[in-house]
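Figure-free illustration: sequence to structure, shown twice.
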Amino acid sequence: MPRVYIGVGSNHQRAYNIQSAVRELGTCFGALTLSSVYESRAVGSAQGHFYNMVIGLNTTLPLIALRQRLHQIERAYGRVRGGAAGGCFPLDLDLLLYGDYVGPVNDRFVPRPDIEQYAFVLCPLAEIAGEVRHPQRGERYRTLWQRFDKRRQPLRRVPLVLEGVALQPQGSRPRRAGLTQVVGAAG
């Protein structure tokens, strides 16, 4: 069963959409490993500020079926593929890693090149998968993040409360979150 990492982002009703994505993915896939939530400016456009995080999970779904499921969830929350109305991205679910797979998936490539290009992807990935090695480069994500020029793309950790989500801390057995779970509390 491959370990999968998904980048989650939103620039419209950000807290609601991030919380919804976590609930939806938890319902579909069970226990999740969650990074902190970070706020950053949109890169390369005037699309405002985004909330971003990375979620780790295990799945038995084949790669194409997983990507289709992620697109279904995005559409349910108002995502329009092929561009966003007025720069609005209610929910963006990017398949970053699918085990050690390297290659195309329809119009994208896995591992996503975004991992090494954007702080809002690499930082939360290094947080929950720091010891995992990039399937092409062979370097740990923690090492890639340590070398990343953080001044180019500043991030701000955002406290966000999640309710009733099964969490799986990296390297341990799944545990059930209580009534509220604080993810990414500043500290």
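We now fold a second protein in the same way, so the two outputs can be compared directly.
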Amino acid sequence: MSKRPPIEVKIVDLLQDGKQEAMSLIYDNYGAVLFGLCVRMMPSREDAEEVFQEAMIKIWRYAQSYDADKARLYTWMMNITRNACIDQIRKNDRRPQIQDVETHVYKVDAAHHSNLPVDHIGLEKELEKLRPEDRRVLELAYFQGFTQGEIAKKLNVPLGTVKTRARKAISELKRFLARDIGS
């Protein structure tokens, strides 16, 4: 796996030791992008704030289960946050109110700007390298919270096609990112 940024190593060590300082560092270094994801996926700012708080609690609660060999800290926290959003959407039986993925998903509100983690830089550029139909599946699944079955219905394609496109797109993104960081 690639060399991890020093701040990530410090946060992981603090989380594993149960030190609350880890949460301050997470908030300072990753809070804007995590909250930005909540804002993009949730129908209201109040819902976004509630889900963001729940995601931060889950990050703290499940810190001992984090495995640096399986995922970057940033990726792990984004998945927890995304899943918290999806859980809330399903609980409320509401869909996220994203109108234009290209102009909303990849950008963090200026009011919530902080130093974005390296993992966030260039994501839009990497997604643009994918075939449009593969990119659309990822956008629907990861940024809008649709299940693969829902995506199949929405795009009017077989479920197997959705699964293949998702698997292929993720594989290609891994290859693009590995090449870009020199792994």
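Summary for the second example: The radius of gyration is 17 Å.
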